[in-house]
Amino acid sequence: MGISDKLAELNYHRFQDFDNHPQKQAIFAYDGDVYDNIDRRSFSKEQWDFLQGHTLIISGLYGPLRVLDKIKPYRLEMSTKLPNLEKLSSFWQIDITNYLNQILATHQNKYLINLASNEYSSAINQNDLKYPIINIYFKEKRNNKLQIIAINSKKTRGSMLNFIAENLIDVPEKLKQFSKQNYYYSETESSDKDWVFVKNE
């Protein structure tokens, strides 16, 4: 993995004593630009119940996680290369895709809203999904060109999860009302499968 010596040492010691580390609920165990922009301390019980039933986190170590599933601290990126496999995402792809098909089969509205980064989205075989997937992208107009600004995109993915939880959204069409951080849904930039939210200069 492309991490610092300090992080490498920390995670080496984590795995050496893995069984003795305390657990945290998954959505509280992760940090970074996406998770730091999720209002984890302000959701109501109804919103938590909704998220638990409608949201999955893709983990390089655990595979698919519900938001309140308990996990131990670790660092393992989905882009990590494994012997005989190009990336860790290839290891998980069949299991995660099958799991998503099973979960979606139980829902009334059978859509997968994908807020994951490209790195983690690669652990889903979209061609083998039995139900529609909508990939969400956040782009900004810079010098008259639309670009994905990584840090802003990460933060806004967290904000969109807040929007979904606050409004208990289980119908994709309602996502088009999202307007935080001055993004808006762009009909012209979007397709049935890829929805683009744009922020002007």
UniProtKB/TrEMBL annotation:
Listed Pfam families: H2O2_YaaD (PF03883)
A Gene Ontology term for the protein's cellular component: cytosol
Native species: Candidatus Tisiphia endosymbiont of Sergentomyia squamirostris
Full protein name: Peroxide stress protein YaaA
Top-level lineage group: Bacteria
Gene Ontology biological process: response to hydroperoxide
InterPro entries, per database record: YaaA
